[in-house]
Amino acid sequence: MALRYICCSLETNMARTTLFLFGVLIALMSSCISTKRLAYLQVSEGPTTDTLVGLRPSLPPYRLQVNDLLSIRVKALDQETIGFFNPTSNEVLNATQEGDLYFNGFVVNSHGAIRVPILGEIPVLGKTLEQVRIDLEERLLADVFKAESNLFVTVKMPGIRYTVTGEVGGPGSQIIYRDQVSMIEAIAQAGDIPITGDKTDVVLIRQYPLGQQVHHIDLTQISAMDSPYYYIQPNDMIIVNPLPQKTWGFGTTGIQSFTTLLGVLTALTTGLLIFSR
User: Fold this and answer.
1) Which residues is 176 bridged to in the sheet?
2) What is the mean pLDDT of residues 71-87?
3) Whole-number pLDDT of residue 105
4) What is the pLDDT of residues 108-160, one digit of tens each?
5) DSSP readout, 87-118?
6) Which residue stretches of the chain are H helix?
């Protein structure tokens, strides 16, 4: 009678253990990340053919905001006068000279204006770089230079500065010295998104004159290139959230899941052997 009870108890425990292991196996299999969530800019399923992406209309020009930093260069025949407007050297600024621009450049203040020698405060908030250049040339020709001085003015921003945080290789602030940068290029500059990052719902926080707005973009689909948020702007913040598999702790690849399952099976088998003695 006692032997039958022990056998029934062992059978019940084995059945429960089998069901538990089956559940663990299903959980581990579901934890593996599909390749559809890993690749960038995928086309819809079908025959493998070349995909032609139509030309996108030109992006609207960036409009200046408070705390933007401008590099303004004035060139003319009157070398003595242009020294007031070019506090740094006339060489092209590069990454090592960014600190000089911080101290000698022109910052958009809280009133939406920049302070220019001789001219005073000039409102620039909400204007494009081209509009600011035209305004400066008109003011300089009217108040400082003569028409025959061959005045030449350039207005630029010192690259595109943005911030990437979350599930990326190198979170932090980045700067790229180009006029147009895609989100994929910006993320690649920050170390790319690892296998545990969610490429299907990348969050973009963009600054506007009236505040901030949150946008979402799926970088796994080719249609992302048509999004108005595919190309970043100065002061953008990109947030990449982790996939749920990272918090589950089961593993993100087949090998990792198999290793976890093997560890669970070993522990359970050892426990059953100790219990049955």
Assistant:
1) 160
2) 83
3) 86
4) 999 999 999 889 999 999 999 999 999 999 999 998 888 888 899 999 998 89
5) -S-SSPP-GGGHHHHHHHSEE--TTSEEEETT
6) 2-31, 79-82, 98-104, 129-143, 183-189, 244-248, 254-276
Distance, in Å, from the CA atom of 124 to the CA atom of 64, rounded to the nearest integer, reads: 7
Helices 2-31 and 254-276: angle between axes, nearest 10 degrees: 170
Cα-trace Rg, the chain = 30
What tokens were used for 88? 């740094």
For residues 238 and 21, the model is more confident at 238
10 Rama class: left (phi>0) / alpha (psi -120 to 50) / beta: alpha
Could you read off the pLDDT of 45-69 as tens digits, one per residue? Answer: 655 556 555 556 567 889 999 989 9
Answer yes or no: are the C-beta atoms of 116 and 136 closer than 8 Å: yes
Summarised one tens digit per residue, pLDDT across range 252-268 is 555 555 566 556 566 66
How open is the CA angle 74-174-126, to the nearest 5 degrees?
Answer: 50
The full length of the chain comes to 277
User: d(Cα 24, Cα 174) in Å, to the nearest integer?
Assistant: 42
CA-nearest of 120, 124, 98 to 110 is: 124
Which DSSP symbol is given to 217? E
Which CB contacts under 8 angstroms, 24+ apart, belong to 225-232?
A: 225/41, 225/53, 225/56, 225/182, 226/56, 229/183, 229/204, 230/182, 230/183, 231/59, 231/180, 231/181, 231/182, 231/183, 232/160, 232/162, 232/181, 232/182, 232/183, 232/186, 232/204
**Amino acid (1-letter code) at residue 236:** D
Q: Name the band, by pLDDT with cuts 50, 70 and 90, for residue 93.
A: very low
